[in-house]
Write a structure and sequence with these properties.
- The chain is α/β, with parallel strands linked by helices.
- 37% of the residues lie in helices and 19% in strands.
- It is built from ten helices and twelve strands.
- It has helices at 6-14, 24-30, 50-66, 81-89, 103-111, 119-122, 147-156, 171-183, 195-203, 214-222, and strands at 18-21, 39-43, 70-74, 96-99, 123-127, 131-132, 134-138, 162-165, 188-191, 209-213, 227-231, 258-259.
- Strands 3-2-4-1-5 form a five-stranded mixed β-sheet, sandwiched between helices.
- α1 (6-14) crosses α5 (103-111) and α1 runs antiparallel to α8.
- It is globular.
Length: 260
């Protein structure tokens, strides 16, 4: 991760897109009317998380417009690269598409020694779909209610405050590293296969905190199962207008919001 800065964190999120295997358009049209059968949409994270929820909404709308079912398949693992590899290796006929965040298509090619796909060669971006606020949430028993208190706690006990992330090569891991470097702290980073299992462990007090989508955090915060620590971007999250942003907490270059 040496040399990484806030530019890469923004780029990692900004390039999250729907993709298809390279050559899909020409192949599909050559075979006649498209689509003539169901389409498989590979999602790089576990069911129930923010990425999965939005993917299912989009899949339902695509099904209506295309007249064929768009079936979501959660292919988790290896920081999302398993799902990307599945789409990249599929027949370029337009019937295997992917819903990915930026981790496996931006960060992984930079940090991984080898990958079973080449983003530029094997994939075609189709569309950026939405902007999603990210928020930093913590377990109820965490002795910190905001970023200054969190930084003080982490400095008092280096390596003991745990932060979940969604795997090697993901935006959440990069965000954790950025927070460490900007704040001068050391965290205990815990990998998960998606934000849903990470949130379960935050609610169960097995991990201290994690960066998740605001839509996933909203019902859990309102029901008193987890606590808000900060909005994850330079501005306050729309769903949490009373929670200060990272910029307000003294980190103006920290922006973990995602654009899918």
């Amino acid at each position: 991760m040496a040399g990484m800065n806030s530019y890469w964190l923004r780029a990692l999120h900004a390039l999250a897109v729907i993709v298809v295997a390279s050559g899909s358009a020409g192949y599909a049209f050559a075979q006649g009317a498209y689509p003539s059968k169901p389409i498989q949409m590979a999602v790089s994270y576990a069911a129930g998380g923010g990425t999965d929820v939005v993917a299912r909404v989009i899949a339902a709308e695509l099904s209506k417009h295309l007249g064929q079912n768009v079936i979501v398949e959660n292919r988790v693992g290896a920081g999302g690269t398993l799902a990307v590899a599945h789409v990249a290796k599929s027949a370029p006929d337009g019937y295997s598409i992917g819903w990915f965040t930026g981790g496996p298509i931006v960060l992984a090619p930079i940090t991984a020694s080898s990958l079973p796909y080449d983003v530029a060669r094997d994939l075609i971006p189709v569309s950026q779909v939405q902007t999603t606020d990210q928020v930093l949430v913590g377990r109820l028993g965490l002795k910190a209610n905001n970023i200054p208190e969190l930084v003080a706690l982490a400095k008092a006990s280096p390596g003991t405050v745990s932060m979940g992330h969604t795997g090697i090569g993901t935006a959440q891991l990069l965000a954790a590293v950025m927070l460490e470097r900007m704040a001068g702290i050391q965290l205990n980073q815990i990998p998960y296969k998606g934000e849903a299992p990470m949130l379960n462990d935050i609610m169960g007090e097995r991990v201290d905190m994690g960066l998740v989508t605001a839509t996933s955090a909203d019902p859990l915060v309102k029901s008193g199962k987890i606590r808000m620590l900060s909005s994850g971007g330079a501005k306050r999250a729309h769903l949490f207008p009373n929670t200060p942003s990272m910029a307000e907490a003294g980190f103006p270059n920290f922006d973990a919001n995602s654009h899918m």
